[in-house]
Amino acid sequence: MKLNTQQRLLNEHEVADSCSINVLTLRKWRSQKRGPEFVKIGALVRYRPEDVDAWIAAQRSTAAEPPEVAR
Fold first, then answer.
1. Which of 18, 34, 38, 42 has the fewest CB atoms within 10 Å, counting from its CB?
2. Cα angle for residues 23, 26, 31 (degrees, 5° grid)
3. Which strand (E) or helix (H) includes residue 29?
């Protein structure tokens, strides 16, 4: 895998803001392995923009079909 060292990594505040969620929610999801993939650099948590985008795309849901009415 070729690394792009010029890539800007996002901090948890930037990701939370872009997703309109609280940082504490993002931290909880991270501990539950529910949120976007992240990178640990020492004690720092950072996110690759493409990982955040992929995670958001995976959250899509389709409208549920209405239940059939018994006749």
1. 42
2. 130
3. helix 23-31
